[in-house]
Amino acid sequence: MHTCPMFDWEAAWHAALYGPGGFFARGEKPSAHFRTAPLVGPELAEALLTLLSRVDAALGFPPVVDFVDVGAGGGELAFAVRSLASASLASGPLASGPLASGSLTSGSLTSGSLTSGSQASGPQASGSQESGSQESGSQESASLAARLRVTAVEVGPPVELPGVRWTSSVPPCVGLLVGHEWLDAIPCPVVTGPSADPWITRWWPALADGALAEVGAPRDEAWAAAVSSVRGAALAIDYGHLVSSRRFTLTGYRGGQQVEPVFDGSCDITAHVAFDACAAAAGGDFVLVSQRDALRALGLSGAVGGSGWDWLESAARAGRIAELRDPSGLGGFGWLLHGNGVAVADLLPELPPWRPNPASFSTG
Ligand SMILES: C[S@@+](CC[C@H](N)C(=O)[O-])C[C@H]1O[C@@H](n2cnc3c(N)ncnc32)[C@H](O)[C@@H]1O
């Protein structure tokens, strides 16, 4: 860890990840180094498609509906959203779809999960996601699928994936923009307390003398720009902290292991997101809730049933959902959801406010 007061942390962090030969710039994919929710299976995409259907309904079913995955990495989330939607459009057996390699079951795209305009698409409808007419559900979901445009935004090299367009900057869009573990990968300055930096005085007032702190201003700016680029909703999913629980969390990941953050391009370098600062920078109508609560509100339930192969598939799905909802793991991630031209209350029911997960600090 560098201690020289003149060391430019932000420049070094940026060069290590995004400079020539940098970790992400040269094409390292998260799947080779750490496990994120899109890599668990299609269930996160399924929940986000349900959220997108609510955004679509609240926008009045525009002719083109965007799903924009910012910081897309290997494009797994974007591709899963495209594939699940396409499977519903085909309205044939989902087993023929692109995700048919065993992880997607016909029970995982429920008839109510892509409805649009009906009561079942509203945030209070989470308990009824598994009910309703398969036929009408698939008609309505087909309508969304036919209008859906999926974009992966990534500064690293794109990956060829059917139905996913790639770009290196956030485009204007109408629909749902998601930054999944994007903000934590945006480099920040680092200061030592005491600090007169305006971001620190507002957002990290308890910084102790001699202690290090990441200055979250570049993330605030990036998030505010992303939210303003979308008509509909923008969602940041990440690990983070609040003004009441700030910690210096800069760390590295390489080959599935947490490592000392070295700025030579050999590892991912990340730090927790100051959610409250990002939320205030983007402003407007927003909520900050836990992934655990949000997934349940979007209808993901891990019921195990049937017999034989069906039982095995439902048990596997239940295991994946349990991993996504684990309060000491991925379920403890924050979901910062902003509405832009859409009321957040039309997208999610009232849920408990997100609280930082103390377990996430123990390795940070
Ligand atoms: C931690 S990875 C997350 C990847 C993927 N979203 C996931 O959860 O598996 C962060 C990704 O964000 C990308 N990234 C960082 N800043 C970016 C920016 N301004 N625009 C586009 N991509 C960016 C990085 O190149 C990296 O692939």
Automatic annotation (TrEMBL):
GO BP: methylation
Keyword entries, A-Z: Methyltransferase, Transferase
Keyword Transferase: yes
An example molecular function term from Gene Ontology annotations: methyltransferase activity
Domain of life: Bacteria
Ranges for region Disordered: 108-141
Record's protein name: SAM-dependent methyltransferase, MidA family
